[in-house]
Design goal:
It contains five helices and two strands, in the order αααββαα. Helix 2 runs antiparallel to helix 5. It has 140 residues and is mostly helical. The protein has a two-stranded antiparallel ribbon.
């Protein structure tokens, strides 16, 4: 399998981890990055769910982690609000709650979760990547 630099994880600031990841086959790099990004996104999801106001519970249940579109840059994960068709009220109120309206003050969930859990997300991504690399090496 060809090994090439597929991902730039300089955001994590761990040069040894970056070099090790870049030595892995491209397929393994992708799987490791997707798994690590998903675990990091789950940290934000859990905190956003905790912060979400509960009326019928649709908003809290609807905060999901999804895979982003694939691109040459690499995989991405999204933490998103529920689709308006999944809300019992039929309206689309998650954005109004997150950012507020002229009649209602903002109750940030996602933005606050990202801001507060940023360091934990990075540590989780780093730990998951390291575990995926160890798992690949032990399987060989």
């Amino acid at each position: 399998m060809a090994t090439k630099k597929m991902f730039d994880i300089s955001l994590l600031g761990d040069k040894d981890l970056q070099r090790t990841l870049n030595r892995l086959p491209t397929v393994v790099q992708g799987k490791a990055m997707r798994r690590a990004l998903r675990t990091g996104a789950k940290v934000v999801q859990e905190d956003a769910k905790r912060r979400a106001p509960v009326d019928q519970g649709d908003l809290r249940r609807g905060i999901k982690v999804r895979s982003g579109r694939r691109s040459r840059i690499g995989p991405s994960m999204l933490v998103s609000f529920p689709d308006r068709t999944k809300l019992r009220s039929g309206g689309y109120y998650p954005i109004a709650i997150e950012y507020g309206t002229r009649h209602q003050r903002a109750q940030p969930m996602l933005r606050a979760a990202i801001r507060e859990k940023r360091l934990k997300v990075l540590a989780t991504i780093r730990a998951t990547l390291a575990a995926e690399i160890r798992k690949f090496r032990s399987a060989r």
